[in-house]
Amino acid sequence: MNTQIADEKSIFNIAVHIDCADARREYLDQACADRPEMRQRIEVLLQMEDEDPRFLEDSAQTQPTLDFDSIELNTPDAQIGPYKLLEVIGEGGMGTVYMAEQTEPVKRRVALKLIKTGMDTRQVIARFEAERQALALMDHPNIAKVHDAGATESGRPYFVMELVKGKPITEFCDEQRLDTEARLKLFQKVCQAVQHAHQKGIIHRDLKPSNVMVAMYDDQPVPKVIDFGVSKAVADKLTDKTMFTRFGQIVGTLEYMSPEQAQFNNLDIDTRSDIYSLGAILYELLAGEPPFEREKIKSQALDETLRMIREDEPTKPSTRMSQICEATQTAENRKNSFQKLGLILRRDLDWIVMKALEKDRTRRYETASAFTDDIQRCIDNEPVAAGPPSQSYRLRKFVRRNKTRLLAAGLAFSGLVICASVSTWYAMDAIESEQAATDAAERARTSEKKALTEAKIANLVNEFVNVDLLGQANSHNEPSPDLTVREALDRAASGIGDRFKTEPMVKAELLKTIGEAYGSIGAYAEAIEKLHDADQLFQAQLGEAHRKSLQTHLSLLWVTHGQPDFDYSKIEDSLKSSLLMCEVELGIEDETTLQARFQVADLFQHLKRSSEAVQISLQNLAICRRVLGNTHDTTIKTLQNLGICQFDQGNFVLAENRFRQVVVAWTETHGNDHPDTLNAMTNLARAINAQGKPERSLPIAQSAHNGIIRVYGNKNVRTTRSAELLIETLEKLGRIDDSIKIQEWLVEQRIDMLGVNDRETLSARYNLARSLAVAGKFEEAQDQYSDLDIATAGMSPDDPVRFGTVMTYSAVLARLGNLRETSELLERHYEQLVTANGADHKLSKNVFGRLIHSLKIQEKIEQIVRVGENRIAALQQIETNQISPTESSFILADTYSQLGITMLTMENFSSAAGYFERESKVRQRLHEQNPDDNDNTTAWAASISNQAVSLEREIRRNNDHLPTSDLLDRQRDAEAKIRSVLATNPAHKVAQESLRIVLKMQTDLLMESGQSDKASTTLSNLVGISSGSERLKYRTLLIKSLLVKGHREVSAELENWIADPTKSKEAIPRIASAYAWCWINAAEDPLLEDQDKYDCQTRYLNATFDLLTSAVDDPDGLLPESIKYLLNNEDFDPIRERPRFIEFITRVKKLSPAASMKELQDSNIE
Amino acid sequence: MSDITRILHQFELGDPTASDQLLPLVYEELRLLARQRLANEKPGQTLQATALVHEAYLRLVGKENDASWDNRGHFFAAAAEAMRRILIELARRKRGPRAGGDHQRVDLPEHELGIMDSRLDIVELSDALDELAQQDSRAAELVKLRFFAGLTLAQAAQALEVSLTTAKTDWKYAKNWLRASLHRQL
């Protein structure tokens, strides 16, 4: 039908009902504007109607030819048995209600409900008869009596009831504009009536507003519940067959139907189903609409509606009310009353209604009178029994989740025979394989025979869950939700017992579910036990390669490695074979295979085999995404695993990306506050932190922490862990004060959870104290630490918490100036460490260093020596006891060094020299053992030069103490040692420097003691190892030391100097001057003959003038310096050398006319 | 379980071929029934077609105690179509000799099988219904259910899964449309 026809039809339909011709024309003018053709057609149709309104009507059926549903008895005075029908007073889903007159045995007016055809009349009557006795016992002013039931001649069942006048309760309340309190009071009467019926063992099963009629008696509204006993007789149970019925007559009234009634094959309906329906009625009385929207129920498919009733939580009445009020104005009455209620009252009513509407009937009001009592409390402003749905929320969710899994498992049994198919797994031995297959097939056949039908298993499992697991979930007095789950599982587990001896599959299924549930609350021991049993059962029944067996085995392996400190390598083989079996038996893309592959990747991740894990995860992820979609658990877990591995590999950016996807996926599937979502958020924050971007991770860490508090409360391990992450992030951001606040909170939680002296508590307190110290709050830190020092005293001295406490405490004490306490604390701890771990433990070295440092500040040399010698003795003891003493020798050498340096800085030179000497001996020995150990060689050279330095200082301070010769011997000894270091390692910087120091000190000693001739050797050594201005200085000193030896030695050294390519320009005048000295001294040389003397002098003078002349060429103006140097040389006689000097001056003038004439004039040469 | 109820169950299971199977069965049943009933009637007596349909329903479906209206809807849709064909067949036969090679069966006795309003030409009405079905199949189906299968407006509405109001609108529109068509006014 196109839209034009639809328009045409509706316009026609309106027009045909307009009797006035003018009005009709006017309407058509308006409706058919621009559509003259349509108008013409409609006019024809209208004409047809006017001409012959009875056309077709007579030949078409207005009354059914056959008696289907109704009205064979519409004619007045129709008689059914003793009842004369008077008029129709109602039509309903089940049939038509007549007012009738009874003539026998009494004359009275009654209501007669004639049920539609389609019922098995005999069954209806039989069911009614079965309850007749109980119905007769009901006697309540608010219950309409059912007098009789029977069948018409044509076989339709009917019921005869007390005639009730009035209106359905909802209509009545609206018409009378009753306020909320009046509504509640009226409703309470209904509850009382239902309670009465329940006490007589009658369940209504179809409570709804139209079954609660209200009329005024003596100005009082009086409700009457009708149809007791009728629906049970009439209503068939909901079966798969009726699922396709879309009109709802058979299944009853969906709007008020309890979830258990909306369940297929559910035979088990009790009084609590009526409580639900009462709740739905109260809901409508308050909100104006039943819990689920009528429109939705009408428009959607029945199975969807049933699902909705079973699973969806209805909106709270107050919320619904405001939604309806926003949408329409019709709810004005209730708006005025319900909306005007105080917040508390409204909230209480919400809770009361929602409690009655709980999906899980064990959580509803136990009885109708409990329901009305709670309403009374609400009216009286007393606290109501109903509360927010959070109390056992988690348990309920938990069980519901498992129930679904159970059902799914129970229904997945069709593969019972297929499971026995030949397993290629055993292909390694064909015969064995065949045998195994035959065995398995045999087992399967036998078990199939024994096995219950699919539905029966599902029912048994379902019933077990309902009664044994779900049935105990209504305890309000449980403080801890986990405890409740745990207890529920314990009871359920013990409930299995021998009950399923003959049904091993059911037992296995239950054990698997309970085992997995134990696993999910961290009760690993129980989980392993149950899953192990389930695994054995499945393997025995189905063979190990069956999907069930594989799934169970995978679950078992999963919980196995959930244990703390688990050695993952133990399950590697088993897990790999499971994966292989899955791949072979189920295919590489099967859901179970994907789970198995995820577990293998997880295993590798825990074994820190990250690259293998990444490879498998990437492969699995691709398949998961394609086969299961992005939001499947396995897909997300795989993604998460990948993120963790990439984090382990140091790919923090990639890891961040993965975790971000995981967060999005979990949020989408589980919501914000799900543990998995929150866990993923903390992972994400860690990955960002690891990139050194705490400013980005802070909001994530913060919101994860808040979420974890919401979900787990303050006192939970997960909460404290997320707090630690937040603290770490804040500290990285330098927000120490914020961090301290959270740490203080954390300490409180830990104290509450674990006690003051628990390790975790102490660890948190230690961190807090440390942060206080970092923040400069030393007094507060000291308070914390002094407590901590006592609290941790019992710990092993090398425990990180204990050790850290002492170290930072000592630092804080030192910072506060309490030096004595500092060293006492350190010494005490040092001794404990030595006793517990030995003097050669690396921590004792650390503490020893701090100890002597603190003693040094206090200038307590004796104590240092005492402690030091004790340590040395202890180390030497260890050294001699050890077969390979290298390690302790190093520690001993380090200790000497520590002491030597301490003594040196304390200016206790002789003592320092002694320690350095002892150090150098140990180092030398170590060097001989291992010449390639550069660190040791360096330390060896350093120890030697340190020793030398110490000695030199000692000499300087007190010359009298030691004879110079002794000192020189020691210095030469040191020089020799250093040279032996250099012999093996000539480029050794520290050794070179040490040698320089030693030689310099020797030189100084020789010069100062007037042995400058001996100094020339050390000086020439120094020249050899020095450079730049140092070298110039040593050359100059060397020449000077040679002067006593005479001009030959001097001039020989000068030639070396001239030959030195590294000599600087500053050297030239000095060399020139030295040659001038040689020229003078050669004149006095008695060993020279006259001619030789003259030649020698000429050579010296030439060299002097050559050097000076070369200096003339120097543009930097060395000439004046040189001339000055020459003229100031008292051995130079310008008069005697006049001719050469004039020649020299001439050359100078010629070359450099402007050159320092002042100096020349000063020389008085003219 | 009779063939018919089996097929009706196939509808439940969503088998799209169910209606193809249902029609011939109902058709055969109706013919058989008509022959039996007419054999017992005095000549010249008109048997109501719709009554026949309901009898067929009780025989075929009703006794199985399957009261789902969904199934009834399918049944009556098939029955209405079958009855229409039977009536047309009869009407054509009454009109005159058949063309050679016609496959029409002649096993119904020479009795009237008719509808209440004898003024109506069943063939013309049937053709007009086909026309209506072209542009408004739901309305046409409604007329068929009422006219040939004898359902009340409410029953037909249920069978078609529409509200009573819609059915009323469709009915009023359709019957006037048909009358206009029969009078060549549209």
Q: Can you characterise this structure?
A:
The complex is a heterodimer of chains A (1166) and B (186). Chain A is mainly alpha-helical and 1166 residues long. Among the domains of chain A are: 49 residues, no CATH class; 215 residues, Orthogonal Bundle (Transferase(Phosphotransferase), domain 1), CATH 1.10.510.10; 120 residues, no CATH class; 116 residues. Chain A has 49 helices and 9 strands. In chain A, the strands form 2 sheets. Chain A has a 6-stranded antiparallel β-sheet with strand order 1-2-3-4-6-5, with helices on one face. In chain A, strands 7-8-9 form a 3-stranded antiparallel β-sheet. The C terminus of chain A is likely disordered. In chain B, helix 1 packs antiparallel against helix 2, helix 1 crosses helix 4 and helix 6 packs across helix 7.
**Which CATH class of the domain at 165-379 in chain A is shown?**
Mainly Alpha
Mean pLDDT score of chain B: 70
Shape of chain B, please? Answer: globular
Strand content of chain A: under 5%
CATH architecture of the domain at 165-379 in chain A: Orthogonal Bundle
Counted by DSSP, the helix tally of chain B is 8
CATH topology of the domain at 165-379 in chain A: Transferase(Phosphotransferase), domain 1
Total DSSP E strands of chain B: 2
Runs of chain B in which pLDDT lies below 50 for 5 or more consecutive residues are 63-67, 97-111
| Quaternary class | heterodimer
Helix segment tally of chain A: 49
Can you give keywords for this protein?
heterodimer; A: 1166 residues; mainly alpha; Transferase(Phosphotransferase), domain 1; six-stranded antiparallel sheet; three-stranded antiparallel sheet; 49 helices; 9 strands; 66% helix; B: 186 residues; two-stranded parallel sheet; 8 helices; 2 strands; 67% helix
Task: Summarize the structure in short.
The complex is a heterodimer of chains A (1166) and B (186). Chain A is built from 49 helices and 9 strands.
